Amino acid sequence: MNKFFKPYMYTAIVVAVFLSAFMLFNYRVEVTVLGILITVFGMVLEVVILRYSQNKAISFLAAVAIFAVFKFNPATCVVIVTLSMALEILAVKTIKRERLFNSISKLLYNWSMRAICILSAKLVSTLLQGYNPILVIVAAVSFYDLVNVGMLNVIICLYTNSKDEMTPQGIYAQLAYVYVCAVINIIMYYGYEAYGVSGILIIYMFLLPFQTSILKKAMVKEMKAYAMIDSLTKVNNKASLSVTLTDYLNNKTPFTILFMDFDKFKNINDTYGHDVGDKILVHFAGKLKRSLRKTDKLYRFGGDEFCLLIENDCDVEAVKNKINNLKNSLVYDEGIIKIPYTFSFGMYKYTGGYGITEDEVIGTVSHRMVRNKVYMQQY
After folding, report:
1. How many CA atoms, within 13 angstroms, populate the side-chain half-sphere of residue 88?
2. Would you say 18 and 56 are in contact if contact means Cβ atoms under 8 Å apart?
3. Which of 34, 75, 220, 240 gives 236 a disulfide partner, CB atoms 3.0 to 4.6 angstroms apart?
């Protein structure tokens, strides 16, 4: 965790509280049927996601909340996002019988993100008042998402002390999300102008099933991804290795595979316990992943066995040297406990020939690993 994590979090909360208090002091909260509808439906959309999926990017909460920007003053917008969040927490606690947030500071920061985002969108819509409504909607939605993603990425980077969150795939996903939210807001805006609350109700009737259909696809994707990931080390698992090897062999794609096995790992489990053994496996996977390219694929084959798949467009010897350097410097450090450990590995290079199977690849490379292990134990 970065030292600026808590100062940043508390600063954001203070800014949100100050802005909200200023808006509530200078504007009168408008209580209307439309406002209640937006509040409740925003909560429903978010609860559907929280109840059935961890992928919150699917939720159309932002699309519904942003619509308030075009129909209400800043104070009412703040009240709508605050009440929708309060109802969301109450609903999740009732349905799942658990707390939505595990700390007050986390809850307040989540609220501050929503408050700052909605006020940012309101500022843009006010500055562009008088321009074409579609232009205003697109600008407000874009700015809302920009602020939201920015605050989210900052808090993640400070918490994890990592800068790996912003990826091209993530940026493309956000652009797609801005597009969907803008389209929904345009439909809601003109629907309300033409038919009032009845028009919004009809749109909402179609919006929830639309979100649910996307959720089903996302859940399948999540389940597939979960089935391919080792739950302990968070690297790819044996099933994922089988899929990749089959694909490479069928397409005659050249690759190099390294099969790694810990030396005397049973002694570590017997001496320090299996919980420490598990932590060492996690430590090893993390160290290895950080020393390799992103295109290299690491798999936990089972127990204390790992496989590394290397595409043959790179310097395999350089990777091999990294592995050798790593194996001689591994120490698990947990305060008073310092446990050095090492491993043996075998290597097999596939050049794209015919007639070899996945089992033969694993059999060959694991046999070479065992041979190297026996050789090292003799000297």
Report:
1. 25
2. no
3. 240
Which residues does residue 306 pair with via DSSP β-bridges, in sequence order? 260, 300
Cβ contacts of 12-20, under 8 Å, gap ≥ 24: 12/109, 12/112, 12/113, 12/116, 12/151, 13/105, 13/108, 13/109, 13/112, 15/112, 15/116, 16/111, 16/112, 16/113, 16/115, 16/116, 17/112, 19/115, 19/116, 19/119, 20/78, 20/82, 20/115, 20/119
C-alpha torsion sign, points 244, 247, 248, 249: positive
Highest-confidence range of 37-46, 73-82, 94-103, 158-167, by mean pLDDT?
73-82
| 125 touches 136 (CB < 8 A) | yes
194 pLDDT exceeds 90? no
CB 258 within 8 A of CB 366: no
Q: Look at the block and give the residue holding tokens 């690993």.
A: 369
Measure Cα distances from 315 to 278, 310, 312 in Å. 31, 9, 8
Nearest alpha-carbon partner for 304 in 232, 367, 365? 232
**Which residues 6+ apart lie within 8 Å of 186 measured at CB?**
133, 134, 137
Shortest CA distance to 291 belongs to which of 244, 324, 339? 324
- Residues 289 and 298: beta-carbon distance below 8 Å: yes
With contact defined as beta carbons under 8 Å apart, do 153 and 97 qualify?
Answer: no
Do 23 and 75 contact (CB within 8 A), yes or no? yes
- Residue 302: enclosing H or E segment and its boundaries? strand 297-302
Q: What is the mean pLDDT of residues 310-319?
A: 72
- Tell me if residue 349 falls in helix, strand or coil: strand
CA 119 – CA 147 distance, rounded (Å): 10
Task: Determine the angle formed by the axes of helices 133-160 and 168-195, rounding to 10 degrees.
Answer: 140
Q: Taking all residues of the chain, what is their mean pLDDT, rounded to a whole number?
A: 81
- Residue type, position 341, single letter: Y
What is the full DSSP assignment across 110-160?
Answer: HHHHHHHHHHHHHHHHHHTTTS-HHHHHHHHHHHHHHHHHHHHHHHHHHHH
Which pTM was predicted?
Answer: 0.56
